[in-house]
Amino acid sequence: MCLDDFDFELPRRLIAAHPCEPRDAARLLVIPASGGLQDRRISDLPALLRCGDLLVFNDTKVIPARLIGRRGMASVEVTLHRDLGGGAWRAFAKGARRLRIGDRLVFAEDLAADVAEKHPEGGLTLHFDLKGEAFHEALVRYGAMPLPPYIKRPPGGDPRDRADYQTIFARAEGAVAAPTAGLHFTPALLQALAERDIGWTTLTLHVGPGTFLPVKTADHEMHPEWGMLPAATAERIAATRHAGGRIVAVGTTSLRLLESAAAENGEIRPFAGETKLFILPGHGFRAIDVLLTNFHLPRSTLFMLVSALAGLERIKAMRMRWPPATASFPTARRA
Predict the structure, then answer these.
(1) Spatial separation of the C-alpha atoms in residues 165 and 167, rounded to whole Å
(2) How far apart are alpha carbons 259 and 269 in whole angstroms?
(3) 29, 76, 117, 302: which could join 327 in a potential S-S bond, CB 3.0 to 4.6 Å?
(4) Cβ(127)–Cβ(85) under 8 Å?
(5) Residue 334 pLDDT > 80, yes or no?
(6) What pLDDT is attached to residue 303?
């Protein structure tokens, strides 16, 4: 794998700081398996998809995992990313090298943590004084939404992000990044899809901070993320396929969990556990027929995933069509 193949210049002026209104007015670039490109909008999905298709959404809910506090007189910012139980959390911190085991981090009068461990990749384990519901309530009071690093906010965050950075499907708390393809859906759009006999179902993948990390070496290792695909979802997918419908993954997170749960013959089975699936060009897709996804950062695992699905050369050509905000990538296998 040559990392330079997945590099490109990303014009900063084309990165939206806030969602458009209504959300389904976002632009959509369609890449049909038969070739060519089409400029559309998310609201066109009922006409673009087929009767009997099934959309699969990620219903994870983003927690306000970014905390700003102090270590003595020094400011410190941490992003929590894994609940270890009992008040212990794995976290990333800006300036983590300056922190020492035993340091006291104070985020509010009633919220503080001790640095319990430092990890080789730059992460920390923090032990908070609070746990359970008391900790959750404090995090809601003092935490900010952990937006991607390319979206700039003032130190305390923007209150609008609490709603803007959640999908309408958000149910299961645990993500530190939103499944962004799902952000474009509205109740009105779901109703329009239903009127065309296009269904939807959900799974859960708690998106971790690794989704923002660039790939720096050819032996890049994915951060594990916890997911669950319930039996009811697996049964819905099987029934859709039996009836001739297509499986439409809404977002790379949905796609990765579906591929993680897929048997060699393509059967989707119930799944509960961690996945570290790294999808690169050459991957044989078993679980999906169509992907709806946003544009992705250069050298990211997500950009490599869409290159694996649609072909690197087509993706390179698609990059010349900025600035649509979202792209739909049908697979050649069944589209």
Answers:
(1) 7
(2) 10
(3) 29
(4) no
(5) no
(6) 85
Contact indicator for 117, 84 with CB cutoff of 8 Å: no
Helix (H) or strand (E) holding 126: strand 123-128
Residues whose CB falls within 8 Å of the CB of residue 97, separated by 6 or more in sequence, listed in order: 122
142 and 106 Cβ atoms separated by less than 8 Å: no
With vertex at residue 41, the alpha carbon angle to CA 40 and CA 44, rounded to the nearest 5 degrees, is: 90
CA distance 316 to 297: 13
* 49, 54, 60, 185 from 190: Cα distances, Å: 13, 12, 18, 7
Given a cut of 60, is residue 241 above it in pLDDT?
Answer: yes
Beta-carbon contacts of 333 under 8 Å, excluding residues fewer than 6 positions away, are 285, 289
Residue pair 138/285 in contact (Cβ under 8 Å)? The answer is no
Structure tokens belonging to residue 52 = 């009997």
Measured CA to CA, the distance from residue 107 to residue 225 in angstroms comes to 26
DSSP state of 289: S
CA distance 126 to 115: 5
Return d(Cα 80, Cα 68) in angstroms, integer: 11
- Whether 306 has a pLDDT exceeding 70, the answer reads yes
Average pLDDT over the chain, rounded to whole? 88
Q: Mind spelling out the 3-state secondary structure of 213-277?
A: CECCCCCCCCCCEEEEECHHHHHHHHHHHHCCCCEEEECHHHHHHHHHHECCCCCECCEEEEECC
Model pLDDT for residues 178-194, shown as the tens digit of each residue:
999 999 999 999 999 99
Contact 313, 326 (CB under 8 A): no
* Tokens 């970014």, located at residue: 66
- Dihedral of the alpha carbons of 242, 246, 249, 255, in degrees to the nearest 10: 60
DSSP assignment string, 29-94: EE--TTS--EEEEGGGHHHHS-TT-EEEEE-EEE---EEEEEETTEEEEEEEEEEEETTEEEEEET
Residue 201 DSSP SS3: strand
Query: Rounded distance, CA 145 to CA 103, Å?
Result: 25
